[in-house]
## 1
Amino acid sequence: MSTTPTHEFDPDAIGPLQGCRVLDLSRLVSGGHCGMVLADLGADVIKIERPDGGDELRHGRIAGVAAFWTVYNRNKRSVSLNLKSPEGREVLLELVKSADAVLENFRPGTLEKLGIGPDVLLAANPALVVTRISGWGQTGPNSQLPGFGTLAEAVSGFMYRNGTADSPPLAPPTALSDMVAGLYAATATIAAILHARTGGAGQTIDVSLFEPLASIMGPDALLDQLGHLPQRGEGTRASSVKGTFITSDDKWVALSAAAEGIVRKLFTTIGSPEVLDDPRFASYESRLNRRSEINEIIGRWIVQRPAADVLHTLRSQGVTVAPVYSTADARQDPHFVARQVYVDVPGRDGEPETIAMHNVVPRMSGTPSGLRRPAPRLGEHNDEILAELGMSAAERENLERRGALGAAARAGVDA
């Protein structure tokens, strides 16, 4: 049971994107994360979902909770709209007229087949930003292939590098490519909205899952050109002395001495300053090529001491070191608690009384935004949003009868 006070939703929280409207036609993680970032920053993100079940994330339950849905779709509103029906598409185009952006992550060509491709959307609103996330991008020989995050992690170079020297290529333990693509898409969307609002035209943004992940591999393309591409188990070459080490009380600490001054402080503190006089370890490049030997020296000192002693001794001398935490550990750490990195928000519809999730990042002094609303029930805001278009209750009921609009899920209904 968490001792963290319940963090109530604040519908009046103001973020820097207040006044921006985004129509989120996406599903699953990449689009969900992009929309969440925009919503967390204050945008009015309206989730457009199929009436027959909505976003697939709603149905992936762990211990009875749709965990991915609950986190990635907070701060959004939901309309259950059938885009395969002419009336449903007409409603969407009416919403487009007051929107800044449309977000989708279907396979390329899907919107065009529905008759609502970028040309149609931009005709309805010439200042619109159409953000398209797909596995392989909108162009190229693989564009029509289905693509999920694991495939992007495989081709980007990430999986090849991830793991230990004696392990097979390893996928990350999170939906990494989806989240990185979502962040890139959110950043590009904000930039394009700013461009449009300062007199520029609307435009289409093409974000694949694999290119953003390739970009965060840093200088690997250049290192490959130079004949020094790191192999699996080597880790990053941004720091010549780094690694994880077990302590005498069977805990783990991570150390990264990225600056030469910190390297010297480290070896002085562990009583081995002479190591750096050895030609094998004297330079940045020589240490990179003998990282296992360097780490063996450091490890012998650390394994003789409990974690608390290691952290205190090294930190007191300016050495950059930290404990290796699980999320369970992090949620109890005083620094995490003080900064409210994780918060407990009220649960709903069969969920536990409170739901733990990460707080809004980053922190802004003037427009801090916040958690305004929980992830919506399917079609929860049908009446509210269509009324904003000036649609009467009778017109909304007619759309429901004709199958263009889903019936809104009510409180207590499995969302």
## 2
Amino acid sequence: MQTYETLLAAVTTPDGGSSVTDPATDELIGLAPERGSADLDRAVAVARTAQPGWEALGHEERSRLLNAAADAVDASAEALAQLISREQGKPLNGPGSRFEAGGVSAWLRTAAATPLEPERVLDDESGQATLHYRAAGVVGAIGPWNWPALIAAWQFAPALRMGNTVVMKPSEHTPLSVLALAAIVNQVLPDGVLTVLPGDRDLGAAMAAHPEFGKLMFTGSTRTGRAIVRSSAGHLPRLTLELGGNDPGIVLPDADPAAIAEDLFWGAFINTGQTCAALKRLYVHETIHDDVVDALAAVAARMPMGPGTSEASLLGPLTTADQFRIVDKLVEQAKADGGRLVIGGNPDRGAPGNFYPATLVTDLPLDASLVVEEQFGPALPIMAYTDLDEAIAQANALDAGLGASVWSGDVERATRVAARIEAGTVWVNKHGTVHPMVPFGGVKGSGYGLEFGVEGLKAVAVPQVIAT
């Protein structure tokens, strides 16, 4: 079991690294190592050497080791959660850093337990054919800063289960959380199976162009995802790209505003809005628009915001100063566009930390910047609609399709509406909930490829048909 102090000491360098600061206080946490292209070449060579032996262990032994890794995470979960809160900013409690550390363990155990048997696809007088899934080789994974440890586990757990080795680059904003997770699980994994290389965007670009990766996984912006496609085209690795979202929600006129308000709030404001599949624009039928706005504002007003390490906080700061500026600019533009600030806005711009209050904006035109651009922060635009077909058209109008939601007292009606929305996942009477057995991925500008469950295992493998 690790303490926060021992974990921090294990992943920081005394000098010569990049500064990592607490987004709640602007105080230095520590220096993260910085790696470059030569380090990448060495790490890939080590991973390539280790991969055949790791694959040869077989599913049963790899699963045993993944469960042992989950045990190690559980033993050091509080130290990992403390580090996540200090580095990324999310609170310890609620859907925060303790939730994130627990999710790491859950995804490791699910990857270990999910069966993936050969599929007999032909068996008749013409012959037999069986579909198998083999390791892709060395997997390169590039992660984001919003859920650094959890999304790292989403990437490396299935990849390792399928017999691949993994070289991973965390976001330059949150390297310590991923280095700490690797330090924990590498207590039980063989050498060379999982390597974390902290570095800047140049390192990420070098990974995308590296010819030795059989598979690349990326979670982040659509712009960077497109750059990865271009850079990797020369050697054609398989790709899983979970990219930006601008998730719509549609509230039908039969919904109960008081009953759905808290779930709506957390659908939008989990991790202070810094979640790819968070609810980012809400269309509410005009007959209940005001009631929904009032109910949401009441929930927002009672949610405490403060440093992630405070046991009282349920909302934390934005992770980076740049993200604070993006949210602030979009809200100010929304006010200039005629939007009505129901609650929030007006941050203390001179105070320490990247705190932006939970903000609700109504009376916006449909083409307002806060509606059509992904804010990735705690500012939710709420638009009234009269015609459901028009609301669905607005939900589908953008080049984003990660998630969406429909809210109604009639689940069957909501399900019919959900089928008309262009998104990889459409939730009914909830938003953004993911499960390690339920496939997850986007369409349109939100990327392609599936993660989680059986489909997630297949996505980090190479199909092979043996026909007789």
